[in-house]
Amino acid sequence: MYKDLEGNTAIITGASSGIGRAMALRFGREKMNVVINYRSGEQEVNSIIQEIEQSGGQAIGVYGDVTREEDVKKLVAAAHEHFGSLDVMVNNAGIENEVPSEDLTLEDWRKVLDVNLTGAFLGCREAIDYMLEHGIKGRIINVSSVHEMIPWPHFVHYAASKGGIKMMTETLALEFAPKGIRVNSLGPGAIDTPINAAKFSDPAAKASVEALIPLGYIGKPEEIAAAAAWLASSESSYVTGITLFADGGMTKYPAFQGGHG
Q1: Which of 11, 118, 135, 210 has the fewest CB atoms nearer than 10 Å to its CB?
Q2: Which of 38, 158, 217, 238 is catalytic?
Q3: Residue 95 has pLDDT above 90, yes or no
Q4: How confident is the model at residue 197, as a pLDDT?
Q5: Closest Cα to residue 227, out of 212, 242, 215?
Q6: Number of domains within the chain
Q7: Domain range for 26
């Protein structure tokens, strides 16, 4: 646990399930104020709020589409109105779908880029603007993926969006370091979330993914949330402009494990 996070305010986009939900609950255990952004799952959001409050934190749910500029502005306004500050911005909302690249429509390309990259940019821009205005040395965490580094056939739009997150994070980190605003990315590997539930329920499919992970198992959302808490805390005070991969070693060329190659 990180004592310095107590009383800080964080926005987490796409926080009604999966990794976003785990981060919201972890921040609640850090006794933070959490703005839970969602587009679906209002009942689940209410449950998350109750659990955060039981942990000693505070939380509100705010409906919004991260691709809409006015909705992202409302998120920041809600943080200020309810909690009086914005210290941590987590751009977590993301989508993916499998399509062979020769069949990928412009509509599908734009939809994934709009949510994953443009949505994260809007979150960064609005959070930085608020932090500059109020003299806050804030922290921004962009949720990327191992696929900012590992090519992924049939997911060219997703991989392109995460590659964009990498360079956006590094550029903003360089630009705003003199203001004390730290910008980092978090790169999950294969994580046991609802979006992956069908795949991992198939033993053969699960085993094929585990073979790509040197540590040998599918990660848990709570393990990603732990990394996010560290990036948000003063324990990472000298860290900016990186992608912290929480992937069980997936980015370390597992085919060469055991001296192969």
Answers
A1: 135
A2: 158
A3: yes
A4: 83
A5: 242
A6: 1
A7: 3-246
